[in-house]
Amino acid sequence: MKTHPLPVVESLEPRLAPAGVIAAIVAGGVLKLTGDAVDNGLTVTEISPDTLRLTGTGGTLISLSGAAGVATIDIANVDKGILADLKQGNDTLTISAAAFSGDVNVQLGIDDNTLTLADLALGGNLIVNGLNGTDTVSLSGTTLMVNGLTTINLGDGNNTTNLSPTGVVVFGTGLT
Fold first, then answer.
1. Which of 152, 57, 67, 140 has the alpha carbon at shortest distance from 104?
2. Are 109 and 86 in contact, with CB atoms under 8 Å apart?
3. What is the spatial order of strands in the sheet that 104-107 belongs to?
4. What CA–CA distance (Å, rounded) separates 18 from 34?
């Protein structure tokens, strides 16, 4: 009678789920951020005039102008504003301690997203748009100044907007 060896199960090396990547590019003084289809976390802080520090959170990497992704990067020559399209995934974006002569425009995208704006001064407009999902937008800090129009449209879902500054608040041409 022919015998067959018993099957053997071998374990594989540990594997991590790939981190999300946010693509970043600077054009004309505007930082353009584009998310992907997975969860991303990003904190943007002005560390000196016209220079921002981008820090990925929760494993998110930042790819500047197509370069390999890194966890933290300093980007110079950003004086006009930020244009962010977070795409899909449960994303978190924090912009703090920053001043721009132009607009901050954030497209939260699909799924559940969180946007925190703290100590922000804009010469232009603040525009925030959401799609489906549960979105939370928080405006806080000691200074919140928007010289243009502030528009927050979070779309469908169980959404929340928190306005809790502790000092100066200016919405130049209106809040919608």
1. 152
2. yes
3. 61-64, 21-27, 30-34, 81-85, 104-107, 126-129, 149-153, 174-175
4. 17
Which pTM does this prediction carry? Answer: 0.88
pLDDT tens sequence across 10-54: 665 554 555 799 999 999 999 999 999 999 999 999 999 999 999
Alpha carbon distance 162, 159 (integer Å)? 10
Q: Tokens 């540990």 identify what position?
A: 14
The tokens describing 56, both together, are 């990925």
Per-residue H/E/C for 31-77: EEEECCCCCCEEEEEEEECCEEEEEEECCCEEEECCCCCECEEEECC
For every residue of 84-137, DSSP letters joined together read EE--SSS-EEEEEEEEESS-EEEE--SS-EEEEEEEEEESS-EEEE--SS-EEE
Lookup result for tokens 């370069």 = 67
